Amino acid sequence: MAETPKLSVEKVLGKLRSNDQKSRDERRSEEMDALDEDIKRMRAQRQRLERHQRRSKGD
C-alpha cells in the first residue's frame, strides 16, 4: 500500500486559516466596492436634487 503524507496539525490549521483570511478579504473588498457604488449613486442623486432646487428658486 502507498503511504499518504501526513501533515502536522499546525500546518493544516495554517492552511485553513490562510484560506479563511483570503475569503474574508475578498468579501470585504466586495462590500467596499458595493459601498463605493452606493456613494457614487447618492452623490449623483444629490447633485440632481440641488440642480432641481436651483431651478425652482429661479422661477
Overview in brief:
With 59 residues, the protein is an all-alpha fold.
What does this entry look like structurally?
- Residues 42-59 have a biased composition (Basic residues).
- Residues 8-41 have a biased composition (Basic and acidic residues).
- By secondary structure, this protein is mainly alpha-helical.
- It has a domain at 28-58.
- It is 85% helix and 0% strand.
- It is rod-shaped, with a radius of gyration of 26 Å.
The global form is: rod-shaped
Which blocks of ≥5 consecutive residues have pLDDT under 50?
none
**Average pLDDT across residues?**
88
Q: What string gives the helices and strands in order?
A: H
- What percent of the residues sit in helical stretches (DSSP H or I)? over 70%
**Biggest sheet record:** none
**Counted beta strands:** 0
Q: Rg from C-alpha positions? A: 26 Å
Q: What is the overall number of helices?
A: 1
Report the structural category.
mainly alpha
Head-to-tail CA distance between termini = 90 Å
Region (Disordered): 1-59
Biased composition (Basic and acidic residues): 8-41
Biased composition (Basic residues): 42-59
Topology:
Blueprint: H1 9-58
Biased composition (Basic residues): 42-59
Biased composition (Basic and acidic residues): 8-41
Region (Disordered): 1-59
Characteristics:
single chain; 59 residues; mainly alpha; 0% strand; rod-shaped
